């Protein structure tokens, strides 16, 4: 059986290389000042989809909601083996919290139609909430399994996965269709293929078209056009999109620099460790 898989991928600020003010005075992310990357665990999500495609056959559609520059995440997905890509970009989607983000993603998935699996990353390195996957599954009324580190078995109508829990891990079997969120330990993402990179290096979304000279677009080397859907294309209610549709607004963000305070020598013995653990528990640092 060949599977229809939708991968959720986000373009995120490269939080390791922040240049300039990360936040605007209104509490939204100053994305201009931040170099962007493919959200790391979304590369693991894409890799999990590609492994299913290698083993069983699949059509992989990658979906991202973001500014026009987020099309780069979709090019990177095509370079690795995605079959189709869709950019959800509209000023009305800007500054969305997880509720508004999952609303838009769920409407786009309804527009795509039939799917067996939706695969996203466990969490994004900027918002770090890990909420979008489960919220999207709820809106689509489909099964979900989060923090998946291994797909044990996949059949025509069921899936068995290993997932991390707060107390270790568990193995669950459930019915398709399903939404999975994948952790970094699940796999090692494959690099872009040279052949696919040459094929799709000029893929562009129409909202990026301005970056390309008209002559080139008229030339017979027609680039792969990345579909861009706005709020009208997915019948979204604008009051449920972007900042308007976001009950959560980021008040303030501070860069926390962890400084070493006073330190204490711990006796290198079982009782030394035991005393350390009971001290950390009594201070509610662990446990
Ligand atoms: C510092 C900071 C703190 C924030 N705190 C909150 C908060 O407490 N509550 C809140 O509601 N919002 C918060 N936000 C806003 C939040 O980042 C955005 O709503 C964001 O679009 C989704 O949340 P997330 O980054 O936590 O993603 P997560 O829920 O961690 O993402 C999980 C997975 O969902 C998929 N996904 C997420 N966003 C997209 C997308 N745009 N396109 C495609 N797939 C996607 C990816 O597969 C991703 O791996 C915060 C933003 C910042 C920068």
What does this protein look like?
- The chain is α/β, with parallel strands linked by helices.
- The chain has one domain: HUPs (Rossmann fold, 3-Layer(aba) Sandwich), CATH 3.40.50.
- The protein contains 7 helices and 12 strands.
- The chain has helices spanning 40-56, 71-80, 98-112, 132-140, 194-200, 214-218, 270-282, and strands at residues 3-8, 11-13, 36-38, 58-65, 84-88, 117-121, 143-154, 158-165, 168-175, 178-182, 204-205, 225-229.
- Strands 9-8-7-10-6-1-4-5-12-11 form a 10-stranded mixed sheet, with helices on both faces. A two-stranded antiparallel ribbon has the order 2-3.
- Helix 2 (71-80) links the parallel strand 4 (58-65) and strand 5 (84-88).
- Helix 2 packs across helix 5 and helix 3 (98-112) crosses helix 4.
- The longest helix is centred in the first third of the chain and has 17 residues, at 40-56.
- The chain is globular, with a radius of gyration of 21 Å.
- The model has no long low-confidence stretch (mean pLDDT 89).
- Residues 8-10, 29, 39, 41-42, 45, 63-66, 96-98, 101, 105, 120-121, 123-124, 126-133, 248, 250, 253 line the site of flavin-adenine dinucleotide.
């Amino acid at each position: 059986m060949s599977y229809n898989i939708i991968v959720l991928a986000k373009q995120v600020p490269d939080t390791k290389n922040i240049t300039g003010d990360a936040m605007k005075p209104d509490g939204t992310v100053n994305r201009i000042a931040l170099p962007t990357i493919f959200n790391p665990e979304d590369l693991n999500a894409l890799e999990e989809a590609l492994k299913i495609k290698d083993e069983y056959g699949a059509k992989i559609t990658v979906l991202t909601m973001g500014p026009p520059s987020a099309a780069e995440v979709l090019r990177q997905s095509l370079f690795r083996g995605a079959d189709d890509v869709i950019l959800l970009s509209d000023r009305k989607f800007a500054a969305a919290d997880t509720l508004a983000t999952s609303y838009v993603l769920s409407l786009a998935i309804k527009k795509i139609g039939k799917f067996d699996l939706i695969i996203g990353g466990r969490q994004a390195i900027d918002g770090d909430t890990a909420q979008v996957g489960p919220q999207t599954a709820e809106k689509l009324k489909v099964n979900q399994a989060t923090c998946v580190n291994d797909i044990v078995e996949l059949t025509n109508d069921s899936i068995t996965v290993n997932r991390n829990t707060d107390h270790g891990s568990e193995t669950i079997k459930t019915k398709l269709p399903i939404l999975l969120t994948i952790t970094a330990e699940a796999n090692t993402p494959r690099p872009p293929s040279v052949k696919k990179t040459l094929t799709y290096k000029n893929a562009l979304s129409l909202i990026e078209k301005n970056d390309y000279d008209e002559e080139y677009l008229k030339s017979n080397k027609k680039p792969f056009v990345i579909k861009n859907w706005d709020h009208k294309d997915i019948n979204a209610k604008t009051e449920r999109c972007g900042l308007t549709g976001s009950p959560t607004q980021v008040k303030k963000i501070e860069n926390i620099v962890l400084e070493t305070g006073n330190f204490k020598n711990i006796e290198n013995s079982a009782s030394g460790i035991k005393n350390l653990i009971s001290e950390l528990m009594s201070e509610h640092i662990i446990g």
